[in-house]
Amino acid sequence: MGLHEIEVEGDALGIIKLQQSYEDDLSIISNLIEEAKIISKYFHFCIFMHTGREMNRVADSLAKYCLDVQDEIFWIEDYPQFLSEQIANDVSCLY
What is the per-residue DSSP string for 10-56? Predict the structure, then answer.
């Protein structure tokens, strides 16, 4: 993809704190946390940031949508129409 710098945002503060921590993780999801940390090292810059739920509606809507998806879906240029309102809301929160 050519990405060198990424900012990963999430509304689960506990998960973000685990990602930011240098201590050993003993949680039930420690393997996922460790895998994300390993993947993050492939980028020149990667930061994990907490964001409020109101700023994360697109991800929330997409996650709920994917619960019912049985097949793989790829969106190259366009995105699903149901996300339009959430994307517009996210953009308006930036200003």
Answer: ES-HHHHHHHH--SPP-STTHHHHHHHHHHHTTSSEEEEEE--GGG-
